[in-house]
Design brief:
Layout lengths: L9 H17 L4 H10 L20 H9 L8 E2 L2 E4 L5 E5 L2 E2 L17 H17 L22 E3 L8 E4 L1 H5 L8 E3 H15 L2 H16 L1 H26 L6 H22 L20 H13 L4 H10 L5
Antiparallel strand pairs: 1-4, 2-3, 5-6, 6-7
Helix pairs in contact: 8-9, 10-11
């Protein structure tokens, strides 16, 4: 006899939605796109409609970003974030939200975390990166953000067109005028083919095998390293909270200042203990085969092209190849 179908609790359903949003952000999807999908699927938010009293199914990027920024995701308790208002409605004081910590300065775990601290930090870094630099456009080129001018060192912008004459051009001339740079350019398709060819020259079978062996050893040691990294992240977060509280004046009195110094010294000591190498530490994979400075191949190649003008690409590539140290 078939039993009743199992129901998913509201709390569990909400948690699954938040996890989905986190995974999609970390995979590169925009918050706007996720909100559009959630709205189209009729997923309820925590906000109620004023007219009907029902939970709204309209998702907004501001609200979702605020949720993805919340330390509640990692089980931490946040206090404050309230306003003290007098009888006339005038705001007397705003209590800034802060993470509640124990006597050692470690954030208190008030409930089961939805994600671990490392995933939370990756999520914050991804959101910070989008705010500062914007998301990578779908039509970006293979070397977008990696090509720098061989004359002035400025970043070069690539044209995403598939036309044979698409190029990378130095941004300095546009931003600062011809006094800083003459505005070097290089054919985008030629540069991409050159970089790919140089990469495969470096990736010999012996080097690939050595890198695979190092990665396998590091993967076998992953559980121990993960625990150490989680503890280190927790201590670094506690230090950041202490410093923020001190900036806000919470440790101005002599007694509070003494407590601050004691907690700070204790946290630093624990971090130093984690930094001490152990006998079974596995070395990280050595990828020095690809080193040579940020955009070094592109710098030499672009410098060669700008000096020699109309000479053939094959000759410029030969000059760049000859000037590159053997890997």
């Amino acid at each position: 006899m078939a039993g009743k179908p199992r129901r998913t609790s509201p709390a569990r359903a909400k948690a699954e939605i938040v996890r989905e949003a986190i995974d999609r952000v970390l995979s590169g999807e925009s918050v706007r796109s996720i909100c559009g999908d959630f709205t189209g699927r009729g997923i309820q938010t925590r906000r109620k409609e004023e007219q009907t009293g029902d939970y709204s199914t309209r998702w907004y990027g501001t609200s979702l970003r605020k949720l993805l920024r919340s330390p509640i995701l990692i089980g931490q308790h946040v206090a404050g974030g309230t306003k003290e208002i007098d009888s006339s409605g005038r705001v007397l004081r705003v209590v800034a939200p802060r993470i509640v910590t124990d006597e050692h300065g470690i954030p208190i775990q008030s409930h089961e975390p939805l994600i671990d601290l490392q995933t939370y930090q990756r999520l914050q870094a991804e959101l910070d990166n989008r705010r500062q630099h914007g998301r990578r456009r779908p039509n970006s080129t293979l070397l977008t953000g990696l090509v720098f001018c061989g004359k002035c060192g400025s970043r070069m912008a690539g044209r995403s067109s598939d036309a044979p004459n698409a190029f990378f051009g130095c941004n300095a001339r546009t931003q600062f005028g011809g006094a800083k740079c003459s505005g070097n350019t290089i054919n985008r398709h030629y540069l991409e083919q050159y970089v790919i060819a140089r990469l495969f020259q470096k990736l010999t079978p012996d080097r690939v095998a050595a890198a695979r062996a190092a990665l396998a050893a590091q993967k076998a040691d992953a559980p121990r390293r993960s625990a150490t990294d989680s503890k280190r992240a927790q201590l670094e977060q506690a230090l950041a909270i202490l410093e923020e509280d001190r900036t806000q004046g919470l440790y101005n009195s002599p007694t509070a200042a003494a407590r601050f110094r004691a907690q700070y010294a204790e946290l630093i000591e624990q971090l130093d203990q984690l930094a001490e190498p152990t006998e079974d530490d596995t070395p990280a994979p050595d990828f020095s085969i690809l080193q040579g400075g940020r955009g070094s191949c592109a710098r030499r190649l672009i410098g060669s092209r700008s000096r020699r003008g109309a000479e053939e690409p094959r000759e410029a590539a030969t000059e760049a190849h000859d000037s590159t140290p053997a890997g």
